[in-house]
Design brief:
heterodimer, A: about 120 residues, seven-stranded mixed β-sheet, four-stranded antiparallel β-sheet, 1 helix, 11 strands, B: about 110 residues
């Protein structure tokens, strides 16, 4: 069971560089999310998507972009990387309540991508 | 607004000790409440949840009761094991299953 797969697991960027964090899920989930995790701060929602072609901002979207061209994939794009974007990034997916039944609300997380901007 | 407050860690216990991790929330309406656990080097995974007031979620010996009157969802376990060492996150659910997380509490259990 692959679940939610993120690549790369580790990356070091220079200030001003750009990169894309990849996320793929094989559970046919309609909802997908990107969170960042900073020490002592919990997880903050960057962007989310409720289905292919539909994306929306979360709490901390500045400096990021996303797209959702297929149900399976939800890449996160960092343009002009800044030291403030040094963090661990988690992709997650879930089913809408209508589809999930008693499992409503459960998110499935990838293993994370650790990004350092120097 | 919506927010979750957890007790600060780290929490250090000996094996077989009783565990309580406090969690309180602020929210409009009556959200679902969750505890997620993160083992070293891994993503978060659902530990337990409660969807309405007075519900008790339970899993792997952990329990938490949704208390509307005190806006709390404290996590408890009667006898912790070394394998329970992890970071525990309290969260509340909003539309489209978006989660609002607390800061996390690190638990270290020693033999």
């Amino acid at each position: 069971n692959a679940g939610v797969t993120q690549t790369p697991k580790f990356r070091i960027l220079k200030i001003g560089q750009s990169m894309t964090l990849q996320c793929a899920q094989d559970m046919n989930h309609n909802y997908m999310y990107w969170y960042r995790q900073d020490p002592g701060m919990g997880l903050k929602l960057i962007y989310y998507s409720v289905g292919a072609g539909i994306t929306d901002k979360g709490e901390v979207p500045n400096g990021y972009n996303v797209s959702r061209s297929t149900t399976e994939d939800f890449p996160l794009r960092l343009e002009l990387a800044a030291p403030s974007q040094t963090s661990v990034y988690f992709c997650a997916s879930s089913l809408s309540n209508r589809l999930a039944g008693t499992n409503t609300g459960e998110l499935f997380f990838g293993e994370g991508s650790r990004l350092t901007v120097l | 607004g919506n927010s979750v407050t957890q007790m600060e860690g780290p929490v250090t216990l000996s094996e077989e000790a009783f565990l309580t991790i406090n969690c309180t929330y602020t929210a409009t309406g009556y959200p679902s409440l969750f505890w997620y656990v993160q083992y070293p080097g891994e993503g978060l995974q659902l530990l337990l949840k409660a969807t309405k007031a007075d519900d008790k979620g339970s899993n792997k010996g952990f329990e938490a009761t949704y208390r509307k009157e005190t806006t709390s969802f404290h996590l408890e376990k009667g006898s912790v094991q070394v394998s329970d060492s992890a970071v525990y996150f309290c969260a509340l659910g909003r539309g489209y299953n978006k989660l609002i997380f607390g800061a996390g509490t690190r638990l270290a259990v020693h033999p």
